[in-house]
Specification:
Blueprint lengths: L2 H22 L10 E2 L7 E2 L8 E3 L1 H5 L6 H5 L5 E4 L10 E4 L7 E5 L2 E3 L19 E8 L3 H4 L6 E7 L8 E9 L13 E12 L2 E12 L19 E13 L4 E15 L16 E17 L2 E20 L4 E21 L4 E17 L4 E2 L5 E14 L4 E12 L3 E13 L6 E12 L3 H5 L10 E14 L4 E18 L5 E20 L4 E12 L10 E9 L5 E10 L2 E7 L4 E7 L2 E13 L3 E8 L18 E9 L1
Parallel strand pairs: 6-9
Antiparallel strand pairs: 1-2, 3-8, 4-5, 6-7, 8-9, 10-11, 10-34, 11-12, 12-13, 13-14, 14-15, 15-16, 16-17, 17-18, 18-19, 18-20, 20-21, 21-22, 22-23, 23-24, 24-25, 25-26, 26-27, 27-28, 28-29, 29-32, 30-31, 32-33, 33-34
Pfam family, one: Plug
Organism: Flavobacterium aciduliphilum
InterPro entries: Beta-barrel_TonB_sf, Plug_dom, Plug_dom_sf, TonB-dep_rcpt-like
Length: 646
């Protein structure tokens, strides 16, 4: 049977199941009590949100023990994190609604994060271990009205772990696993992850200190086309220190301070003509990140005021073997970013609230490479963005979220964006929410695109417009949840190379459209089923590494209070990739085949709430597939882990 037919049939099965369950069920249901923050920056009931926001809670992260952050995100409807099945050091691609990395904004504890020294403004998720994360909200669509530059296709709102309410709590974990391709069968330990945290609350003071360490070896980053040749095994090493102190100054005023240090060392290779000729042990990269911040919060009778501030410094160093000169070359990049976001929510009455705020960002960078240098005092810009959002939530079920943001940029001038997001919840007797929105977003040109030897100082922002509509239904006393959203996105003024090999705003319009749907059914307290399907269609200019069809499914089963079992399935449709052909010195396009992954997890509590062990088996069928031309992917692998809480 044609695989595309399988995907399309699965999609219609999901939609049909929603409709059938709605007709069949006549049980009175309660409103959703889950709380989300991404579409207003303040906590509100998911029922009153005009978006379908996916929230991965701490409990759900526990069910995904042993997985990387990229792999967890890639199981969400509408999200494709390319490289999550490759070697740990492989660059990641964020493909959401036909967009790329720079169109996805990463927010950590309310602070936007980015690497201002990169070609495009984006954040490297490899820096962040999933073990230090409390929860994740994924809000898709243009969201620059609240979040500014970069929020064109999605906002990944990440909340790090918080302090325990106890005076002292300590946690520790240790994971060990294999790191094989489909042709390797070494099941000795090659993938290690360990860490601990000490945290608690004593009177008005809360504290948290944590450490994470990851070490991976045994797998070449590039594919191994010659089975008789030896390929260098590329090492990946990561260490993360995190500290946080909170002080409850008064009943209304809370102060939080944080400091993080992250370091990644990685070997890497570039495929050359897909032959593996560029395999070498001389390519090495090191990235260091320093993050500091202060976040006071003040609550009063009719509202609350937040101030999120952060300073981020990233240093990247590369040692790379030049295949043409046969010399080892060194490059260094450094970027500094300051972010300040002050915003206030005022409740006029039970139905209407007004969110007002202003953000400030400053970025600069410098670099030294064998080909050119970029000087910091000439390579910088700042942005000041006032914004306002009105939120109307009525007892009748009508909800409206609408806002404006003015981006004032020191280089290119002003940019205005807006969003209008009405939704309607029919209530308990007809537990359906329908939603729609039109919103705009902008992507600021990066420092590199403005000021490097390929840069153009007159660049203006890329512009995005997204229209979406859909529904969410909750049935069977909240046991069954179904949602589906259709979207249409237009991308204007994209930044690319012109005929002189300089960055320029490319005239023309690029489009993306699709459908994202999710079904979750809690059969009983022991058995849960969930699945999602994504259809994405893009113009040829955007068509790289984006699957047209994608399916995720999972079964969670807890036969006892201490034993948890999970089985998951993923289908990724064929994609289009481009690679450099060393014979013709041209870029060629290749079609990648579809692939399917089957995984399993077993988890058992040895001591209730104190000690647990888990085991995972991934790519059980040992599928041999390609994520990127010339790069290796993981075959069948295992992981064992131990978690202790005191």
């Amino acid at each position: 049977m044609n695989k595309k037919r399988i995907c399309i049939s699965a999609f219609f099965a999901l939609i049909t199941s929603c409709g059938y369950a709605q007709v069949k069920d006549s049980i009175q249901v309660n409103s959703l009590d889950e709380v989300v923050i991404s579409d207003t920056k303040f906590a509100q009931s998911k029922e009153k949100s005009g978006k379908v926001i996916t929230k991965i809670t701490a409990a759900e992260l526990q069910k995904k023990s042993g997985q990387s952050l990229a792999t967890v995100l890639s199981s969400v409807a509408g999200v494709e994190i390319n490289g999550n099945q490759s070697a740990n050091g492989k660059n990641l691609g964020y493909y959401i609604r036909g967009g790329k990395n720079q169109q996805v904004l990463i927010v950590i504890d309310g602070n936007p994060v980015t690497d201002a020294s990169g070609i495009s403004f984006e954040y490297d998720l490899r820096l962040l271990p999933i073990d230090q994360i409390e929860s994740i909200e994924i809000m898709k669509g243009a969201a620059s009205t609240l979040y500014g530059s970069g929020a064109a296709t999605a906002v990944l709102n990440i909340t790090l772990k918080k302090s325990s309410k106890k005076p002292l709590q300590a946690t520790a974990y240790l994971n060990i696993g294999s790191n094989n391709t489909s042709t390797n069968h070494k099941y000795n330990g090659q993938d290690f992850n360990q860490g601990f945290s000490v945290n608690g609350t004593v009177k008005k003071v809360s504290y948290l200190v944590s450490l994470n360490s990851t070490e991976t070896n045994g797998m070449s980053q590039i594919a191994e086309p010659n089975p008789d040749a030896y390929y260098d095994k590329d090492r990946f090493s990561r260490i993360n220190y995190r500290s946080k102190v909170g002080f409850k100054a008064t009943q209304h005023l809370a102060l939080d301070f944080f400091g993080n240090y992250d370091k990644v060392n990685s070997d890497y290779d570039f495929p050359f003509d897909n032959t593996g000729l560029n395999d070498t042990d001389k390519n090495h990269s090191k990235t260091e990140q320093f993050r500091l911040g202060f976040s006071p919060k003040y609550t009063y009778n009719n509202g609350e005021f937040h101030l999120n501030t952060s300073f981020n410094k990233i240093q990247r160093a590369y040692q790379e073997y030049n295949l043409w000169t046969l010399a080892t070359e060194k490059s260094a990049y450094e970027a500094r970013s300051i972010s300040v976001d002050a915003f206030n929510k005022y409740r006029f009455n039970s139905e209407f609230s007004l969110i007002t705020g202003s953000s400030y960002q400053f970025h600069d960078m410098n670099s030294e490479t064998p080909y050119s240098n970029i000087v910091r005092n000439l390579t910088k810009f700042n942005m000041i963005d006032p914004y306002v959002t009105g939120v109307y939530t009525s007892e009748s079920g009508l909800n409206v979220n609408a806002g404006l943001r003015l981006n004032v940029h020191s280089q290119y001038g002003n940019q205005l964006v807006y969003n209008i997001n009405p939704s309607y919840h029919f209530g308990k007797e007809v537990p359906v929410k329908i939603l729609s929105s039109i919103s705009t977003a902008f992507i600021t040109p990066s420092l590199y695109q403005l000021y490097s030897e390929y840069g153009t100082a007159t660049l203006t922002p890329e512009k995005n417009t997204t229209i979406e509509s859909g529904f969410e239904v909750v049935l069977l006393n909240r046991k069954l949840t179904c949602n589906a959203v259709g979207f249409y996105r237009e991308q204007h003024n994209s930044i690319g190379f012109d005929a002189t090999y300089h960055y320029a705003n490319i005239q023309g319009l690029n489009k993306a459209k699709g459908i994202e749907t999710t079904v979750r059914y809690d059969v009983n307290s022991k058995l849960n089923l969930n699945a999602n399907y994504t259809f994405t269609q893009v113009d040829e200019a955007l068509n790289r590494l984006i699957p047209k069809h994608k399916i995720n499914g999972a079964i969670d089963f807890s036969p006892t209070q201490r034993l948890f079992l999970n089985a998951s399935y993923q289908y990724v449709d064929g994609r289009q990739d481009a690679f450099f052909d060393g014979n013709t010195y041209t870029t060629r396009v290749a079609k990648l085949g579809s692939y399917q992954l089957v995984n399993a997890l077993v988890k058992y509590e040895l001591i209730k709430t104190r000690m647990s062990i888990f085991g995972t088996l991934t790519n059980i069928l040992n599928a041999d597939f390609v994520e990127n031309i010339g790069y290796s992917t993981r075959g069948r692998n295992f992981k064992l882990g131990l978690n202790i809480t005191l």
